[in-house]
Design a protein that fits this description.
By secondary structure, this protein is an alpha/beta fold. Helix content is 31%, strand content 25%.
Length: 191
């Protein structure tokens, strides 16, 4: 069964004050890192959803999708990515952000084995992204609206532990913590 990846990267990064997709960690941007981890997990195709008009260069095996409704919030990016996965006849989809450095290929492979059930990532006492949805849930995902994303749908599934999964890079303090955990301070100074 083919499982697609949808990397959500259309946010405005207001709290960080600069596009988090371009922030470097360990010699690569957060967006490059998320796409690489999805590819390394064997997810295919890998879609990256950007705000319409955003420009980025990624490995040719990654498909860039523009989201003309990015200002609506996360749900609009989920709809764009899931519509592409549906057109590719994927049997499921893993939705992930570009700002969670704890995500590994092993974790994505594990949740992508969900079959017919929703499997989220467990951290900080809750379930969240990355999350696997079977194709049977695509219709529900395409109905999402607003900035809450698929939170309610994720709650219905089970979770696999993701150590440090609560760390997403929204502020400079988050970035400093990520660099402490995952390296990259030397690479960032030279970039």
């Amino acid at each position: 069964m083919k499982v697609a990846a949808v990397v959500l990267a259309a946010g405005s990064s207001r709290r960080l004050g600069r596009p988090k997709q371009e922030v470097r960690l360990g010699g690569e941007t957060l967006l490059e890192r998320a796409a690489r981890v999805a590819r390394d997990a064997g997810l295919d195709p890998v879609y990256v959803v950007l705000a319409a008009g955003d420009r980025t260069t990624l490995d040719g095996r990654v498909r860039l999708l523009g989201n003309p409704d990015a200002n609506e919030g996360m749900a609009s990016s989920i709809r764009v990515g899931v519509a592409a996965a549906l057109a590719a006849e994927a049997g499921g989809v893993v939705i992930l952000g570009c700002d969670q450095p704890a995500v590994t290929a092993e974790h994505l492979r594990a949740i992508a084995q969900g079959g017919d059930e929703v499997i989220g990532s467990g951290y900080a006492g809750r379930k969240g992204i990355p999350v696997y949805f079977p194709a049977a849930m695509f219709g529900e995902l395409l109905k999402l609206r607003g900035d809450a994303g698929a939170r309610e749908l994720v709650r219905s599934g089970r979770a696999m532990a993701l150590p440090h999964g609560e760390l997403d890079i929204d502020t400079d303090d988050d970035l400093a913590r990520a660099r402490g955990l995952y390296g990259g301070a030397r690479a960032e100074r030279s970039a």
